[in-house]
Amino acid sequence: MSLNATLADIQEIIIENRQRLIPIVHERELRGIITRTDLLNRLVNDPANLPKNLLHESEYPSLERSRNLTHLLTSNLSKEVIILLQTVGEVADDLGFNVFVVGGFVRDLLLKKINMDLDIVVEGDGITFARKLADVLLARVRVHERFGTATLVLNNELKLDVATARLEYYEYPAALPTVELSSIKLDLYRRDFTVNAMAIQLNPSHFGKLIDFFNSQNDLKQVAIKVLHNLSFVDDPTRIFRAIRFETRMDFNIVKHTERLIRNAVKMNLFGKADDPRFFTELKIILNEEHAVPAVRRLSEFGLFPYLWPDLEPHLNIDRRFNNCLNQAQKAITWFKLLYLEDYFESWIVYLLTIMGRSPVTVLKSFCTRFQLAPKMKSLLVNEKTQADKTAHFLNRRVVLKNSEIYLALNDLSIEGLLYLMAMAKKPEVEKCVSLYVISMRTQQSLLNGDNLKSLGYQPGPIFKTILETLLLARLDEAVSTRQEEIDLLTQKFPLDQSN
Ligand code: ATP
Ligand code: MG
């Protein structure tokens, strides 16, 4: 491209021809390079491309749309949270900064849902503010200097993130004066969707003032997921996952125009190799949602499967068997949750394994590599799939199984692996085995314990594990039931002189 190329020329090559870089050449010499990011920064941030109401506040008074939410705050939040929000405002006042709570917290408050993640934006220096707030709250603070952000670790379920919104000045072309954009406005404009782009001011003199520049309240009423500008997905394709997350979680609708932008972004091959770990982070959140299955269907509908799982069988569509497995995974997860056991498990693992259920483990391995999963997580997933697939094969082949055989087949699997097995079960017998194991075998023990073995004259050592397991298996098969029967079996199978 030559030095006199226009912005339109550059836009065409980068956006329409899907090229990431353009070398600028003059008299056969390389003069520079324009990247897609350069172009986007220019397009997204150039005041000529900003919506008019962002720039001319007086013509579009946003005050009209701002109202005071103090009442909503006090009637929906605990005293502890209100006091925290007030403290945030006071600390900011001391430093002379404006301060806001933004994003998901505001959205959920207006929907009357509890959200314990506080995203705070400071007009000023976020890090200085976060340090001072941490002092006042006696909390620990983690600072990320490079991004002007900080996280406060509080002594309860609350999480508080602080970000900095800087004042930015734009030279307007020709005769127009320099424009000063209020930084909270620009901060909100750069967010993902209108419903996530509201703020509530926390400074004492404006406490509870809702800030809504983009008609977000209306979109919330219309249950609409809408981007703030047309280049949103080009700017950050992970927002496609986020759109699906919010749509399915809140039972909202991605509006037609935004849907079209998603389809365009997918067509533009923005994902390329889809190797950004942030894609995985967003996918994981989707798979942890209560309504993960419709969200997975949506991912498929938008044509995202080939990017996420290029080697997946079946490649492009969700077929009947796949659908069944997803539904069974959902059923298994719900069933397990309703048992109210203490065991912690992660549903995203169950869904991820289910999605790759019919593919060889190499597909899972390459997924982990592509999205840079931690080695520990990779080996956990790979082990679980390998083990569960083997067990599924075994359970599917046999018609009648002794309890001890079920126990031995399932005992090495984690909760995620067990639920995955239920999801992939082709016969109701397999599901029954797993539920029998979970409900009545998993926590059973023999009547005799290690101490009893010692007092019976056995020397502690690795043999104890074998003995106790033998007793347990006999108990599961109902070969023994009383303590005496266990002792009899013990002396028969492990005569004292041999075990010592
Ligand atoms: P959740 O309740 O699931 O946490 P959330 O809206 O709080 O939903 P987060 O991922 O915690 O979502 O992000 C917090 C806020 O940061 C969002 O509300 C949004 O305004 C903004 N945000 C997050 N990710 C992006 C992104 N990729 N692009 C633009 N804005 C984003
Ligand atoms: Mg959040």
Question: What does this protein look like?
Answer:
The termini are far apart. The strands form four sheets. A seven-stranded mixed beta sheet has the order 5-6-7-4-3-10-11. A hairpin with a 5-residue loop joins strand 6 (149-153) and strand 7. The chain contains 26 helices and 13 strands. Helix 20 crosses helix 24 (463-476). The longest helix is centred in the last third of the chain and has 23 residues, at 375-397. It is of the alpha+beta class and 500 residues long. It binds adenosine-5'-triphosphate (ATP) and magnesium ion (MG). Magnesium ion (MG) binds next to loops.
Question: Which labels suit this protein?
Answer:
500 residues; binds adenosine-5'-triphosphate; two-stranded antiparallel ribbon; binds magnesium ion; seven-stranded mixed sheet; alpha+beta; globular; 26 helices
Fold topology:
Blueprint: H1 7-16, E1 21-26, E2 29-35, H2 36-45, H3 52-55, H4 70-76, H5 79-95, E3 98-102, H6 104-110, E4 117-123, H7 126-137, E5 140-144, E6 149-153, E7 159-165, E8 168-170, E9 179-181, H8 183-189, E10 199-201, E11 209-211, H9 216-221, E12 224-225, H10 232-235, H11 238-250, E13 253-254, H12 256-267, H13 277-288, H14 292-301, H15 305-308, H16 320-338, H17 347-355, H18 361-370, H19 375-397, H20 403-410, H21 415-424, H22 428-441, H23 450-455, H24 463-476, H25 483-493, H26 496-499
